[in-house]
Amino acid sequence: MLEIAQLSKTYRGADGAPVRVLDAVSLTVKGGQVVGLVGESGSGKSTVIRCALGLLRPDGGAVRYDGIDVHAARGESLMRFRREVQPVFQDPYASLNPRMTVEALIGEGLRVHRLRSSRAERRDRAVELLEMVGLGASALERYPRAFSGGQRQRIAIARALAIEPRLLICDEPVSALDVSVQAQVINLLQDMQERLGLAILFVAHDLAVVRHICSEVSVLERGVIVEAGSAAEVLDRPRHPYTRSLIEAVPTADPVTAREHRRLRLEAAASKA
């Protein structure tokens, strides 16, 4: 469904010198699949996302969605891409227009893509989605400034789901939420994925969340994919030192026991090799 092939991108640093942000990054997302992209801050994850959404043009490589060249698409192909691929950004304070009510924010996509002909139908769909993300009809007439960061992110997710996309591209969508709300949002995404056959590219630094929701994982270090495979393979039997360092950095209530369990898993994997 989504193919990112040999993507490269270079920015200019503060001193004007070129900074290589992405170097031949490749990954794929198949229909109905949830693929995780993990790495620490500054590894290039958000640049991958912006290129995949067509918001940023790469210096090299290509992004294709279901046969559509994302950066060359025009007309009907571009409209199809924009309907079927929806983003959920990390910062809900920046991604929601502060001058639009929640009803208008969720209904905008329905109106643009002509999926609901009347305001009443769009309003009903907005109420349905708000209830799914735990807010309800009372949010309809309010503006983003009336909500907490976690509530704003739930509104952003409702907006993304409104036009029934085939692929969600999520840039750390639960990092601003508390643990209980994270679980609700992750469960919602899983429910939609199972019910609609939704595919998801899920960018995160929280490996516990990635382990829970993703079937495949790619690890990005300084703009390079250093490891990729099934979530169980990458997170339980990491081969690359960078992946191991990310796993070691995950906080745990009992670090001594966690290190011992990890050592035993690695020894067991080595004995099978």
What features would you highlight for this structure?
273 residues; 2 domains; single chain; Rossmann fold; alpha/beta; six-stranded mixed β-sheet
- State the end-to-end distance: 33 Å
How would you characterize the largest beta sheet?
A: 6 strands, mixed
SSE pattern, N- to C-terminal: EEEHEEHEHHHHEHEHEEHHH
Number of helices: 11
Percentage of residues in helical conformation: 40-55%
Q: Let me know the CATH homologous superfamily of the largest domain.
A: P-loop containing nucleotide triphosphate hydrolases
Q: In the CATH hierarchy, what is the class of the largest domain?
A: Alpha Beta
* Alpha-carbon Rg, integer: 20 Å
Overall CATH architecture of the largest domain: 3-Layer(aba) Sandwich
Number of domains: 2
Instruction: Name the structural class.
Output: alpha/beta
Average pLDDT metric: 87
CATH fold node name of the largest domain: Rossmann fold
Low-pLDDT stretches: none
The strand line-up of the biggest sheet is: 6-7-8-3-9-10
Strand residue content: 15-25%
Describe, in short, the structure shown.
The chain is α/β, with parallel strands linked by helices and 273 residues long. The protein has helices at residues 45-52, 75-84, 92-95, 102-112, 119-132, 149-161, 179-196, 207-213, 231-236, 241-248, 255-272, and strands spanning 2-12, 18-29, 34-38, 60-65, 68-69, 85-88, 167-171, 199-204, 216-221, 224-230. Helices cover 43% and strands 23% of the residues.
